[in-house]
Design a protein that fits this description.
The structure holds 2 protein chains of 2 kinds.
Chain A: E1 4-8, E2 14-19, H1 28-39, E3 63-69, E4 72-81, E5 84-90, H2 96-114, H3 120-125, H4 127-137, E6 138-139, E7 142-143, H5 148-152, H6 160-167, E8 196-209, E9 215-229, E10 235-240, E11 246-251, H7 257-263, E12 265-268, E13 273-282, H8 284-288, E14 294-301, E15 312-323, E16 330-331, E17 340-349, E18 354-362, E19 366-370, E20 375-384, E21 388-398, E22 412-420, E23 422-423, E24 429-435, E25 442-457
Parallel strand pairs in A: 8-25
Antiparallel strand pairs in A: 1-2, 1-5, 3-4, 4-5, 6-7, 8-9, 9-13, 10-12, 10-24, 11-13, 14-15, 15-21, 16-23, 17-20, 17-22, 18-21, 19-20, 22-25
Chain B: H1 8-20, H2 34-43, H3 52-67, H4 76-80, H5 88-101, H6 106-123, H7 128-140, H8 147-158, H9 163-176, H10 182-198, H11 202-215, H12 227-233, H13 239-256, H14 261-265, H15 267-275, H16 366-371, H17 389-398, H18 407-420, H19 425-438, H20 443-459, H21 479-492, H22 496-509, H23 515-539, H24 543-564, H25 569-587, H26 601-620, H27 633-645, H28 651-665, H29 683-700, H30 706-722, H31 728-742, H32 747-763, H33 785-793, H34 821-825, H35 853-861, H36 863-872, H37 882-893, H38 898-904, H39 907-921, H40 929-942, H41 949-959, H42 970-986, H43 991-994, H44 997-1001, H45 1021-1030, H46 1040-1044, E1 1050-1053, E2 1061-1067, H47 1070-1080, E3 1089-1098, E4 1104-1111, E5 1123-1127, E6 1132-1135, E7 1140-1149, E8 1161-1167, E9 1170-1176, H48 1180-1183, H49 1191-1200, E10 1206-1210, H50 1219-1226, E11 1230-1232, E12 1243-1249, E13 1256-1262, E14 1265-1270, H51 1273-1287
Antiparallel strand pairs in B: 1-2, 2-3, 3-7, 4-6, 4-8, 5-7, 8-9, 10-14, 11-12, 12-13, 13-14
Helix pairs in contact in B: 2-3, 3-5, 6-7, 7-8, 7-9, 8-9, 9-10, 9-11, 10-11, 11-13, 13-18, 18-19, 19-20, 20-21, 21-23, 22-23, 23-24, 23-25, 24-25, 24-26, 25-28, 26-28, 26-29, 28-30, 29-31, 30-31, 30-32, 30-33, 31-32, 37-38, 37-39, 39-41, 39-42, 50-51
Classes of the chains: A alpha+beta, B alpha+beta.
């Protein structure tokens, strides 16, 4: 159970404070937390250097013990989202995962209500809604209502119009319906003039590739994202062409588990709006034979110690990147022409000892060096196999001193890319049928393959 | 407000800028003064809706102040007045403020009383969520005075009709509990129990269980009565409730069920036990026998263990000879992962395990599972068969939740399965998969999951071995997960291929920028080198060479590392320590099987260690390093190198190095040593080296660290013992070191020095420096030098990184359950951590968990049930009564002997089957007594299965209580029919079902002329019997009546949607309909009754079990007519591939209507545990009633109906098409006049009457035209559409 919930800004300021069990937790808990956090502020300065995750600080364990408050030992379970630290203060034994899942759910709801990113300004700008949401989501420290559709039936998301009205003296007394349906994830009485449902099968490739391009490990995780605008209470049935590809899966609570176990069909009454229907892992055989569609060969040269003057040294990095013709992706029938990789981007984090960069040259795309984060972002955009790209850049850095226990981090590049209408596993939908409602909705299904955490090791 | 003429872009910009000042952010600025707020609150009037914005502003300001940490309690008097404010948003904020400050001081407490009235009004509000809100806030205010009011409020809301309110009432229980006295507390307990036992809404149950975990987590016996319900509904709980509930049930399970044999002895556990690499402290004969270490552990200071605390060598009790137990590698769960070592059959050496040949055990590859020569003990299908049924039920209902999207739920299920389930391969593999899946979540979640995996990977590595790749460290992993991943990787290196992979990975980790991580990676190298030996030994006798190669490679890698990361002393130090371990490891049995070391890696390693040691020691006394080892050419070369060594080792590494070098330098003695190492040095050279080193040590001694000092003393002692002849110089230095040690400040160092010197003195070798030794008592028996030598220089067992078997920190008893907060922080997190109770000695009787029938009755009478039950049944397949489930579980256990299943079902199902008969037989019986008797006999026959219960039922049928079938609820009745027909079908087809008919036949009223003039029914027994004989429950395809009296087949369920199950249905009409309707117990002549014949067909390869129909709850829509009574066909127990089954479904709708498709029944067709929703929507054509018209009447009517009442359609009809049959198939019509001679005559006439109004519908079809006439204008086009479709 959560005794208190705090949300801290990226500078450690308390934005939201809420106590659920009648006990007021002193803010010194937050100070203790922040002291630990600020010790390990990431050297990339909170800018997402490698992945989409923001890493404001590095090494605060998500479960932390704060001894010696006026209530004895307290436990802080925390997570970091969009630069904000969500702190749940627990007085006693509780499943830490329950709390962590809940904190992330709270953050998800904020994104849902206030848009992405739900950062400091979004919270400040909507803090009264935040408090109302927390009031509905938690009762005496236990999660109460966490389904977005059910919450929206009770608390109206802020809209331009409502803000406008509030700024004038008119306040709408109209209440949301507040109906509690027997399916907590679905709003009662939904009605659309245009009934449509879009299904995206997104497969993300996580991989570790060494400098020569050999795949050390790879992993594919798929998810099915739905955007659903259907009236009434439709009952949907999604069938796959080859469900044996799926090795392990998890579902949104709306899915009937047993149907999948038996027939490998996904039968569900969808929530309204956007949601993730299921996520899955594909069978290992498929993953092992994975051949990534892009390559990037890095070469780091740190110069020689003896040739330097003082502590400063000059290094040089050379990259070759491109699209391979031999990828193992499966393309949709509607895909034509050569393989085109979209949003191709290489992130090159420089060692923290780097002082400056020079002679940056690329023959394709654009490259921008972020001085504060010490990250070079090479944006290649759209690319196909006919093009080759290379980048060279020199950098000067302070050589680590003997005994400093500081090393030049072996830089790990990360690659982002996206290939529409392609799939790693070849999973395709063979049918999506709607029952219980008489209309015939517009149905759209597509595959997307993209990078997850796609990392190139340079050492 | 905005100029409409502005271009849209401008508007947007203006909007955006306007909005930026409009959000709540303004309240964070200090622009508004508290006085203004106070003033506005004073002036505003809560009941005036125009003042809402004033309040909104004030409350937002107050909330923002709270957020900023300011105390705004002085506003309390103003705010408390606002509880009645009209606007709900404001009211919510007022509530939040009140809860925050109500208990602040005496003034606020008193003032709070003013607000209570408003909450009580809220509790009576019509809106459910306002009631809930009022209750939540009311119970959150912690003022002693209102406790009684609060309890009353909870009591009231616990019986609310809305489940949401009841949920909040359940939550409120735990809010009030801490403030209650004993009496009040027992009241709360009672409320909780009532909610637990009587409510079946999952929302409510979830909260009630959470309340249970807060109120009385130990009184698990209170869960008996709702155990079954919880298990059945578990999948429908919300995610958060599932976590709490599973934890509760795990403890319940331990307390009330006995430990299953397969818990410790499951297939997976047995494989893992042989697979995992452990050390044992037990002395026993070792079957694999390649390793026999019987080294006496001598209490010499163990070097280098300060950091490597994981090395359990420290914990070895002294003087206990121990062996390293080596076991043989077993096959993993996933056949493709492992290689060819299948053939070896290994005998488990465990105390209780019978010799167990484990061959391949597979999950995913049934083919090879069959070919594997598995002994019966390996077959896992039976592993859970010995469990108590309720225990099994619990485990099975939790298992699907491994697929939850919520990581907390998945982990809770894993915990349940691990601590309370069987350790079968199937379960363990599923757990492994699920955990690996959820570990890919966000980094905080990943951390917790990985910690759990780390614990599990040590116990059951096989479950995670296939996922080794998933644990490779990625660049963006935060430090806390990196270390855990490393741990997992090293405990999974149990196969040669895995070892290779892990070592390759470690090669890149050891240079990591994070010192702690790099050091841990270096330690892992040592651990892997050690494991590699065990793993290879298990595989074959020649494996040792491979293992040695691996160890040498590791050594070489570390050597290189120590040369390249020379600016990072910690790393160099760590690698020295691990190098020492590996050297020792290889040396430990080199006398048995010498290590092939063609590249002299060991020599080079020792050399490097020596260099580093000398450099460090010389640095310590600020002596130019060039002094060291300048004696010979080699050392000269090294001396210049020394300058570039440039790194001082940390203390533990120095100690380690000192030990290694000491070992090497003493090599000319007979003791076990690195004989090949330093082979290139002559004895003299070695003596020089030794001398120089000794000098360095002595000089640096006062500056050394404790562990270094201890090692120096050890070094000096050994030297004294071995090299004592003649070289007085050395002796002197050694004795000086000892005497320095005897005077050290550290007691440990001092004691060691004193003891060693005392012993040497007793041996008579101490000559020079006797300071502090005089006081020693004389030892009478002189110690022999040989003995002493043995004591000090005997090879010690190598330091081991492996966990010890039976170690308390890894076994269950000593540690916290994985995934708990306590396990994360390493201590009991307050007293809320409840340990798992030990297993019960015996299974508790299952009758504990049965509910009395009486109880049940009271349940259904509660208002809860009415509102809760239909909701909660969404998606749930096994949520019927307990009896239903027990019969299903027994029927699913045996394949085709379904008759035995019903007879073998337990008490509860008998009870319900006896109750089945009640409503049937209690119909109005006006038959002659003879009939009644035969009926009773038949009843008896039927209820033979029911045993004693049959007497009850027949006697109560005599009573002929007037409660007819209408009095029981729909669902109940449906189920009763199920049960009844189940019996009748099982006992061999038709005849028994007929037994029912006499009861209903009486209801046939004489004026029921629904079929043909000649067939006006006569109320005679004979006639009834005729109907009886004519109506088999399953229609044969040859039955003419059925074909004639039914419409066309309609596809209800397409086989591709239901895994091959096809369901078709057709509406019955006329005489057949009334016969069937009678049998179903519905009113025969009502137009609102429809009767469908259903045809189930299995087009799949497998079988379908338990096909049944359930009515779904339908909201009362405006235009939809819902069913009033719903009589599903009997459950089909088993439908084999390619087979068909037929059933009759009867529905009595609330009313009938002439509008097409306005009547609708929503039905779920369930099979096994799947189901598919179906809508039964009779078209107007199917609803038409038969009516008679003469030819002339027909023509007259047709002529009369014109305009809107008439629709014509031009068609071109082919004479060969059987038009009449098609029309009759599509709609329930009667032919007027001669119909048989089509098409020669050229005209077909049909007539039917509308169900609601009774208006006749006339249809005239010629070869070129179709005419439909009816008084009802709307119907005309509907009918025409039906005809059109039929003709196409």
């Amino acid at each position: 159970m959560i005794q208190s919930l705090f949300i801290l800004s990226p500078t450690g300021e308390v934005l939201i404070e809420r106590h659920f069990r009648g006990v007021v937790t002193s803010r010194s808990v937050c100070d203790t937390f922040w002291d630990r956090a600020s010790e390990s502020i990431n050297h990339h300065g909170g800018v997402s250097a490698i992945s989409d995750h923001e890493e404001l600080y590095d090494s605060v364990p998500p479960v932390m013990e704060v001894p010696g408050s006026d209530q004895g030992t307290l436990y802080v379970i925390s997570c970091l989202r969009d630069g904000l630290s969500y702190l749940a203060v627990c007085p006693a034994e509780v499943s830490p995962l329950l709390i962590l899942e809940f904190l992330h759910r709270v953050a998800d709801i904020f994104v849902d209500y206030f848009g992405f990113p739900a950062d400091e300004s979004a919270i400040k700008d909507n803090f009264s809604t935040v408090y109302q949401l927390l009031e509905e989501m938690v009762d005496y420290g236990w999660p109460l209502t966490t389904e977005p559709n059910a919450l929206k039936a009770m608390i109206r998301p802020p809209t331009v119009m409502s803000k406008l009205l509030q700024s004038t003296t008119v306040v709408s007394d109209e209440l949301p319906s507040g109906t509690v349906s027997n399916m907590p994830w679905r709003t009662a009485d939904v009605s659309y003039s245009q009934n449509e449902i879009y299904v995206d099968i997104v497969e993300e490739v996580d991989a570790i590739v060494d400098a020569s391009g050999a795949v050390i490990s790879s992993d594919v995780s798929g998810s099915i994202q739905c955007q659903c605008q259907l009236s009434g209470v439709p009952d949907l049935l999604l069938t796959f062409k080859d469900p044996t590809i799926i090795d392990d899966w998890s579902f949104h609570p709306c899915v009937r588990y047993s149907r999948y176990e038996e027939d490998s069909v996904v039968s569900f009454v969808p929530p309204d709006g956007n949601f993730e229907l299921m996520s899955y892992r594909i069978v290992p055989e498929k993953v092992r034979s994975l051949n990534p569609p892009v390559f990037c060969h890095p070469k780091w040269n740190y110069g020689d110690r003896s040739t330097t003057s003082g502590d400063m040294r000059t290094g040089r990095v050379t990259l070759h990147a491109g699209v391979t013709t031999l990828s193992s992706l499966v393309f949709s029938p509607s895909h034509k022409g050569p393989v085109v990789v979209e949003d191709f981007c290489v992130n090159i984090p420089f060692p923290r000892q780097t002082r400056s960069t020079s002679n940056l040259r690329v023959d394709f795309g654009t490259a921008v060096y972020n001085e504060a984060a010490k990250v070079l972002r090479w944006n290649l955009g759209k690319m196909d196999a006919s093009k080759k790209a290379s980048l060279t850049c020199s950098f000067s850095f302070v050589s680590p001193k003997v005994g400093e226990e500081e090393a030049l981090d072996p830089p790990h590049l990360s690659l982002n890319w996206k290939i529409p209408l392609a799939s790693v596993s070849g999973l395709t939908v063979s049918g999506l049928s709607v029952t219980r409602e008489s209309y015939h909705p517009y149905k759209g299904v597509r595959n997307i393959a993209k990078s997850g955490i796609f990392q190139v090791r340079c050492s | 407000m905005w100029n409409a003429a502005d271009p849209a872009t401008v508007l947007h910009q203006q909007l955006a800028s306007a909005l930026s000042t409009m959000g709540d952010a303004q309240y964070w600025e200090e622009s508004i003064s508290p006085a203004t707020i106070q003033q506005s609150l004073l002036e505003a009037d809560p009941s005036n809706p125009h003042h809402t914005s004033t309040y909104l502003r004030a409350m937002k300001w107050l909330l923002a102040s709270i957020s900023k940490g300011r105390n705004v309690s002085d506003f309390y008097p103003h705010v408390v007045k606002c509880v009645g404010v009209v606007n709900l948003e404001v009211r919510k904020m007022v509530y939040m403020y009140l809860v925050q400050y109500a208990d602040y001081d005496t003034t606020t407490r008193e003032l709070s009383l003013l607000s209570i009235n408003s909450f009580q009004r809220g509790l009576a509000d019509a809106e459910q969520w306002i009631r809930a809100l009022a209750l939540r806030v009311l119970t959150s205010i912690r003022i002693p005075d209102i406790l009684q009011i609060q309890i009353l409020g909870v009591q009231k809301c616990a019986a609310d009709r809305s489940p949401y309110v009841r949920k909040c009432a359940a939550n409120a229980l735990s809010k009030l509990a801490p403030r209650c006295d004993e009496l009040q507390f027992s009241l709360l307990l009672e409320l909780m129990q009532q909610l637990l036992e009587d409510d079946s809404n999952t929302m409510v149950l979830t909260s009630a269980l959470i309340a249970f975990s807060e109120l009385c987590p130990d009184q698990l016996h209170l869960l008996h009565k709702c155990f079954h319900k919880i298990c059945h509904l578990l999948t429908d709980f919300d995610e958060w409730g599932q976590v709490v509930t599973i934890d509760l049930l795990a403890r319940y399970c331990r307390q009330f069920f006995k430990q299953p044999v397969a818990w410790k002895e499951g297939t997976a556990e047995r494989i893992d036990r042989q697979r995992r690499v452990r050390r044992t402290l037990i002395t026993e004969k070792n079957n694999t026998g390649t390793e026999q270490h019987t080294a006496a552990a001598i209490p010499v200071p163990t070097p280098s263990l300060a950091e490597t605390s994981a090395a359990a060598g420290v914990s070895l009790p002294p003087r206990v000879p121990h062996k390293i137990k080596r076991r043989v590698v077993k096959k993993g769960f996933y056949s493709d992962e492992e290689d060819e070592s299948t053939e070896e059959e290994v005998y488990a050496q465990d105390t209780n395990g019978p010799a167990l040949p484990i061959s391949k055990a597979f999950r995913e590859n049934p083919v090879s599972a069959v070919t594997a020569t598995a002994s019966p003990t390996v077959l896992e299908d039976h592993e859970d068969s010995e469990l108590a049924p309720d225990h099994r039920l619990l485990l099975q209902s939790a298992l699907p939740l491994l697929k939850s999207r919520n990581a907390g739920v998945v982990l809770a299920v894993c915990s349940l399965q691990y601590y309370c389930g069987v350790s079968s391969i199937k379960v363990r593999a599923a757990m492994g998969k699920a955990l690996v899946r959820i570990h890919r979540d966000r980094r905080e979640i990943q951390y917790v999951v990985l910690t759990s995996i780390r614990t599990l990977a040590k116990e059951c590595p096989s479950a995670f071995a296939p996922f080794l790749h998933d644990f490779l460290v990625k660049a963006m992993d935060p430090p806390f997960t990196r270390l855990i991943k490393l741990d997992i990787l090293s405990s999974l290196a149990l196969e040669p291929s895995a070892i290779q992979l892990v070592l390759k990975e470690l090669g890149s980790y050891v240079r990591h920028g994070d010192r702690r991580f790099a050091c841990a990676a270096i330690q892992a190298v040592g651990k892997i080198a050690e494991m590699a030996r065990i793993v290879h030994d298990r595989r074959d006798a020649m494996g040792r060479d491979e293992a040695n190669t691996i160890a040498l490679n590791c050594l070489h890698g570390l050597l290189t590392l120590s040369q390249t990361v020379d600016h990072r002393p910690a790393l160099v130090g760590e690698s020295i320590i691990v190098m020492q371990c590996i050297l020792q490891l290889m040396r430990s049995d080199s006398h048995v099987q010498p290590v092939k070391d063609p590249n002299y890696v060991q020599d080079r390693a020792v050399h490097r260690i020596l260099l580093l040691l000398v450099y460090t020691l010389s640095k310590k006394r600020d002596e130019p390093a060039i002094d060291a080892g300048s004696e010979d050419e080699d050392e000269d070369a090294d001396a210049s190198k020394l300058q570039s060594v440039g790194v001082s080792l940390p203390a533990p590494a120095v100690a380690s190095a000192l030990w290694v070098i000491g070992e090497c330098l003493l090599s000319n003695q007979q003791s076990v040593s690195f004989s090949p190492i330093f082979g290139k040095y002559s004895i003299e050279e070695r003596a020089e080296l030794r001398h120089e080193l000794l000098r360095l040590v002595a000089k640096a001694f006062p500056l050394l660290h404790d562990c270094e000092k201890e090692q120096s003393i050890h070094f000096a002692t050994r030297l004294l013992l071995t090299e004592s002849d003649g070289i007085t110089e050395e002796e002197k230095i050694c004795e000086q070191i000892l005497s320095l040690g005897r005077l050290d400040v550290n007691p440990d160092v001092r004691d060691q020095a004193r003891m060693f010197s005392g012993m040497i003195h007793a041996g008579g070798s101490l000559k020079h420096d006797l300071d502090g030794i005089e006081g020693l008592p004389l030892i009478h028996r002189k110690l022999e030098k040989e003995q002493m030598l043995k004591m000090f220089t005997h090879a010690r067992p190598p330091v081991s990184f492996l966990p010890v078997e039976g170690d308390m920190t890894t076994s269950e008893s000593g540690a916290f359950r994985f995934g708990t907060l306590s396990s994360m922080v390493g201590h009991k997190a307050r007293n809320a951590y409840v340990e798992l109770p030990p297993w019960a000695a015996e299974n508790s009787p299952s009758s504990l968990r049965e509910r009395d029938p009486n109880d049940k009755k009271s349940t259904t009478s509660l208002p809860n049930e009415k509102f809760g039950a239909p909701n909660s049944q969404f998606y749930n397949d096994g949520d019927d009564s307990d009896s239903d489930d027990s019969s299903s579980s027994s029927s699913s256990s045996d394949d085709d002997s379904s008759s035995s299943s019903s007879s073998s079902s337990d008490d509860s199902s008998q009870q319900s089957s006896s109750r089945v008969l009640l409503p049937m037989s209690s119909g109005k019986i006006t038959q002659p007594s003879v009939q009644n008797n035969t009926q009773q006999e038949k009843l008896k026959l039927l209820s033979l299965n029911g045993g004693d219960a049959s007497d009850d039922s027949s006697s109560s049928s005599d009573d002929s209580s007037s409660s007819s079938s209408e009095s029981s609820s729909n669902g109940e009745q449906g189920r009763l029919h199920d049960q009844f027909d189940l019996i009748s079908m099982n006992t061999g087809g038709q005849p028994h079902a007929d037994a029912l008919i006499p009861m209903h036949i009486t209801e046939v009223s004489p004026n029921n002329n629904y079929f043909g003039v000649a067939n006006v029914s006569l109320p005679s027994v004979a006639d009834d019997l005729k109907g009886l004989v004519l109506s088999p429950p399953v229609a044969g395809p040859t039955d003419q009546n059925w074909e004639r009296d039914s419409g066309a087949w309609i596809q209800l369920v397409r086989p591709e949607h239901a895994g091959g199950l096809s369901v078709q249905g057709r509406y019955l009409r006329g005489f057949t309909k009334s016969q069937q309707v009678q049998k179903l117990g519905l009113t025969v002549d009502k137009p609102s009754v429809v009767c469908l014949q259903l045809r189930f067909e299995n087009r799949n390869q497998g079988v379908f079990r338990r096909i049944r129909l359930l009515q779904r709850s339908q909201p009362g829509g405006s235009s939809i007519i819902r069913p009033r009574l719903f009589v599903p066909p009997p459950e089909i127990n088993l439908l084999e591939a390619g087979k068909q089954a037929i059933g009759i479904l009867g529905i009595d709708f609330m009313e009938t209507s002439d509008r097409d498709g306005s009547m609708q029944a929503k039905v779920d067709i369930k099979y096994g545990s799947g189901g598919i929703p179906v809508e039964i929507k009779p078209s107007i054509g199917d609803l038409l009633l038969p009516c008679q018209r003469s030819l002339s009447e027909f023509d007259t009517a047709m002529a009369r109906l014109q305009g809107f009442q008439r629709v014509e359609l031009s068609v071109q009809l082919d004479a060969s098409v059987p038009i009449k049959d098609r029309i009759l198939g599509a709609a329930s019509l009667t032919v007027v006049g001669p119909g048989s001679d089509w098409p020669s005559n050229g005209v077909l006439r049909f007539v039917g009457s509308l169900p609601a109004s009774g208006d006749p519908v006339y249809i005239l079809i010629t070869t070129s035209k179709v005419t439909v006439c009816c008084d009802h204008a709307l119907v005309v086009s509907n009918i025409m559409n039906i005809i059109k479709r039929a003709l196409q």
